[in-house]
Specification:
The chain is 24% helix and 24% strand. It contains four helices and six strands. β5 and β6 form a beta hairpin. α3 runs parallel beside α4.
């Protein structure tokens, strides 16, 4: 998402398997036109020209393995929508995340599709990338494996 998403998208597309898909979301018409022309030959790639928040609301039924967000500081609400779309084990890379932290996850009332989903901070791991505070890696935890209940042979 954001300006420069096409360059990152090209790198991701180059390493993707043939059953995966790439969605590139930009807000600039010129960038969208260039990306559509460049990605036109690859059926795995699509380009969308739309506001980030509106797009994430529109695709609320989908789940993603990787989201690269280059506009996190401009649209903090979009970050929360994006985190709600991550699959278990999915990775969210935020460039310029501002003051986003575990404590920033809201607990809004469920129901409205225009409000970010209720997120539990314990469902995510956060780490700053490198020595800079300009990048953040967020990983959605997988559900813990349920322990099988074993019978006690002594109790029989």
């Amino acid at each position: 998402m954001g300006a420069g998403a096409g360059e990152i998208g090209a790198w991701v597309l180059d390493a993707m398997d043939h059953s995966s898909g790439l969605v590139t979301l930009v807000q600039d018409e010129d960038e969208a036109a260039v990306l559509e022309r460049e990605f036109d030959r690859d059926v795995r790639a699509s380009v969308h020209l739309q506001d980030a928040e509106a797009f994430l609301i529109d695709v609320h039924a989908h789940r993603f393995d990787l989201i690269v967000d280059l506009i996190a500081d401009e649209h903090p609400k979009a970050v929360l929508f994006g985190l709600g779309l991550l699959r278990a084990g999915g990775v969210y890379l935020a460039s310029h995340p501002g003051s986003l932290s575990r404590e920033a996850f809201p607990r809004p009332a469920p129901g409205s599709g225009t409000q970010p989903p209720a997120l539990e901070a314990d469902d995510f791991e956060l780490a700053r990338l490198g020595n800079s505070l300009e990048s953040l890696i967020i990983v959605r935890r997988t559900e813990p494996a349920r322990r099988k209940r074993r019978s006690n042979p002594r109790g029989r």
